Amino acid sequence: MMVHEFFGYAAAVLVGLVIGLAGGGGSILTVPIFVYIFGIPTMLATSYSLFVVGTTSLIGSLNHIWKKRVDLRVTIAFAGPSFISVYLSRRYLVPALPDPLVRLGDINVPRSDAILFFFAVVMILAARAMIRDKRPSEGIAADGRPRYGSLALDGLAVGLLTGIIGAGGGFLIVPMLVLLAGLPIQRAVATSVLIIAVNSFIGFLGDLQHISLNWNFLLPFTGLSIVGIFLGMYLARYVPAQVLRKGFGWFVLAVATYMIARELL
User: Fold this and answer.
1) Which tens digits make up the pLDDT trace of 118-139?
2) β-bridge partners, 108
3) H or E element that contains 117
4) Where is the signal peptide (predicted)?
5) pTM exceeding the 0.90 threshold for the entire prediction
């Protein structure tokens, strides 16, 4: 095994570790790991990311369901439209994107570069949210009456984002569950993990019609990520969540800055 591959597989444990500790966030590292460490093409990397994120998050969500932390009614309201959006975007929208995606005179921007640039912008937004750590304690649904219509619309938007970049979008889902469903932050995080899991699997199913997978690589990577989530759920008892989110936020910001610099240069 080459040195860069060793670091890549070690990063798989980190992905699961972060999801286990924070209930999300690790998924935005999978695409950069696949592209920059393992040299996997961007479009295939987003497919691999959906499988890894879906499987790892599912393990975490089973733990939350067992401990009755998940609000299944809100999950259905948010996730139903999101499932439709993520499947259609992976099945039809992403394969139909032209290559190059942008033409400006003599400048052509390949589809893969455009998606990586967009991914990096999303990472910056996620990093900003984690560094500030100003998630609301209550929102417009503080009266305990979820705004199901608004939840459905947000589900459509998050599904589209997941479909395009191959990340779960937990940094968007959690605040919406607090604001629009009136969930306490702990239940919002637990519910978000389940939504991320199913969203990712639905998107992955949309890819199976037009991709060829290297299971000899994908399954060991996913297995290490699952090891990481068990470790993360154990350490969550001892690591302050706020310290973790801010530290990880700065790390994500550094990775996103590297990605943008690399794509521009």
Assistant:
1) 888 888 877 787 777 655 555 5
2) 103
3) helix 111-132
4) none
5) no
Structure tokens at 67: 């401990």
SS3 call for 133: coil
Give the pLDDT score at 223: 94
Token pair in block for residue 244: 């973790």
DSSP string, 169-212: -HHHHHHHHHHHH---HHHHHHHHHHHHHHHHHHHHHHHTTT--
CA-closest candidate to residue 49, choices 192, 163, 180: 163
Question: What is the distance between the alpha carbons of residues 17 and 239, in angstroms, rounded to a whole number?
Answer: 12
Question: What DSSP line would sit under 21-63, residue for residue?
Answer: HHSS-GGGGHHHIIIIIS---HHHHHHHHHHHHHHHHHHHHHH
Determine which helix (DSSP H) or strand (DSSP E) holds 109, and give its type and residue range: strand 107-109
Q: Which two tokens stand for residue 123?
A: 């990472």
Matching residue, tokens 């994107």: 97
Whether 5 has a pLDDT exceeding 90, the answer reads no
- Under a CB-based contact definition with an 8 Å cutoff, are residues 18 and 193 in contact? no
Q: Give CA torsion, residues 252, 131, 239, 69, to 10 deg.
A: -90
The strand pairing partners of 102, in sequence order, are: 109
The identity of residue 208, as a single letter, is: L
Q: How far apart are CA 22 and CA 67, in angstroms?
A: 16
